[in-house]
Design a protein that fits this description.
three-stranded antiparallel beta sheet, five-stranded mixed beta sheet, 1 helix, mainly beta, 129 residues
């Protein structure tokens, strides 16, 4: 009896830890429509970094910026966004601009070139000494 009780208890604990898919969220890559350099800080995590505000135009208020991600190849950093669309909500199809802050944290001193998904002609140069 005790084994059955413990087994049931463990089942209920671990079943609550599973990530549930609500069926409403649809994730996809988004495009950055604007970038604004905000400055640097040496106070964040005891490192130098550069702060950028990213703007994205969403097709409706049911779409939002889920996360900002980066990929690095040497000193070239490619920054993109992932959007999430709530397909279960009713939203007017009116474009909405959203912003999110991206913090570039370098791996060391050097010159870095930041490229933005959706802005193929823009490259920002960050020099860390």
């Amino acid at each position: 009896m005790r084994t059955v009780f413990i087994s049931l208890l463990l089942f209920f604990i671990f079943s609550g830890c599973q990530k549930s898919d609500d069926g409403c969220s649809q994730y996809q890559p988004g495009n950055i429509s604007g970038v604004r350099y905000m400055g640097t800080s040496s106070e964040a995590a005891d490192q130098d970094g550069a702060f950028f505000d990213l703007s994205c135009v969403m097709p409706s208020s049911c779409t939002a910026i889920n996360k900002v991600y980066e990929s690095r190849e040497g000193n070239v950093v490619k920054v993109g966004v992932e959007t999430v669309y709530n397909k279960c909500a009713v939203c007017p199809e009116v474009p909405v601009t959203q912003t999110k802050t991206y913090v570039f944290v370098p791996r060391g001193a050097g010159t870095y070139y930041i490229k933005w998904q959706g802005l193929p002609d823009r490259v920002d140069t960050v020099v860390i000494r």
